[in-house]
Structures are given as C-alpha cells and as structure tokens.
Specification:
Layout: H1 3-13, H2 23-26, H3 34-48, E1 52-60, E2 66-74, E3 78-83, E4 89-94, E5 97-102, E6 107-112, H4 118-121, E7 132-140, E8 143-150, E9 158-164, E10 169-176, E11 182-192
Antiparallel strand pairs: 1-2, 1-11, 2-3, 3-4, 4-5, 5-6, 7-8, 8-9, 9-10, 10-11
C-alpha cells in the first residue's frame, strides 16, 4: 500500500463524528423524500446482496488507538477481524455471539449479536424499516451515510454506514455501543463473492489449552 493511500485512509478514519444526523427522519417528523426512499431501497438491496466479503481494515478505537488487519464477513451472522501485530486483538462473530479477545490482559468478552449494532449488518435479511430504524440519513459529495438502530432497543447503540456513490459500495462503518463508545472501521481492497473457510468463524478459547498436562 502506497504512503499516499495510507495517508488518505488515515484521514478518512479520523474524520470527526457527524454532528447533524437527521434524527427527525426516524421520528416521522420529516418524511423521507422519494429520492431518500429510492436511496434507502438501493442500500437495502446492496446489503442483502453481500454474502461473503474480504477486506483490509483500518480501525480507530474509542481511545483513539489505530489498528489494522484483515476482515472476513459471511452473512448471516459470521465475521472475523484478524488484527495485525502488535495489536493483541481478535474478534469473531458466529453462533449468534460476538467474541472479542484481548490477549494483552488475557480477557475474552462475549455479547449476543442481537445486542450489538453489528448484528444489524450481519442479519439474515437487512430491513431498513420495522425492527430496524433509520436514525439518520445524510448525503455528502460522492457519499451517503445512514445511521441504523434497533427500534425496540435503541440503548444498545447504533450503526452508521458510509457508502460511496456511483457505484454504491460500503466503505466504512461506525459502531456506537451501549456505553456510547465509538469505534470506526474503514474498509479497503474489498473483495466479494468468494468461498470462505468455515473455520475462520470458529473461536477457540486459548484458555482451554492452559489446563496443564494432556489428558489420557
């Protein structure tokens, strides 16, 4: 990756949060225009057309720490974020759960996908209506941003997706979790439609190998 490309990615990843999502749209105070409805329909069809995806990623954590690695996604319900060293992390989504490993403190955290905003993206079928609410919708030059949350549990956080326009393509997402911490992921070198090894999405707890001698 060229130095210029890396600098461009860093600028994109470090963009400040948008301060004016159109929350009134979700509340029904500002009904979507025909153009809004058409764009949301295209976004919904695009997301449902993603079955497998592989990409490099650049992540900005809530504390500002920057890491990168390789991401694999298989809908429904599967994702793996393999962080490059020295980042001591691994994130795996499968079997209805999201597992995050931090080897620096020997800690493994687990959360049901139904309680994570990422579960919206990994759903069997993405519906941008009904149980999922469009909390914000904004057009920028060459880009569209959509903020989504579960209508029944908005306190679980939100997911803001950034798409390039013409052609429509997912390039970034920002997760705002239940503790109001923001994690931003920028994708590049994106590939779709490949066959992925199911083992990618199986998390093996390293602590299971720390029980001493081998069994008989």
């Amino acid at each position: 990756m060229s130095l210029m490309h890396r600098r461009t990615l860093l600028r994109l990843a470090l963009l400040p949060p948008l301060l004016a999502p159109i929350a009134a749209l979700a509340q029904g105070l500002v009904p979507p225009t025909p153009r809004d409805a058409a764009d949301l329909g295209q976004i919904e069809a695009y997301l449902n057309g993603i079955h497998t995806l592989k990409a490099h990623f650049l992540q900005v954590a809530p504390d500002g720490a920057i890491s990168q690695g390789t991401a694999w996604l298989e809908r429904p319900g599967r994702m793996r974020f393999q962080y490059d060293p020295p980042a001591p992390f691994l994130l795996v989504a499968s079997h209805g759960n999201l597992v995050f490993e931090d080897r620096s403190i020997n800690q493994i955290s687990e959360l049901p996908l139904s309680l994570s905003p990422l579960g919206i993206l990994l759903a069997d079928h993405v519906h941008l209506s009904g149980a999922v609410k469009v909390e914000g919708f904004q057009r920028l030059p060459g880009q569209i941003l959509v903020t989504l949350a579960r209508g029944g549990s908005p306190r679980d956080g939100s997911l803001t997706l950034l798409f390039t326009d013409h052609p429509l393509a997912l390039r970034q997402w920002t997760v705002l979790d239940a503790q109001r911490r923001e994690t931003r992921v920028t994708l590049y070198n994106v590939e779709q439609g490949m066959i992925l090894d199911p083992k990618l999405f199986e998390f093996v707890d390293p602590r299971s190998f720390q029980s001493g001698g081998s069994g008989g």
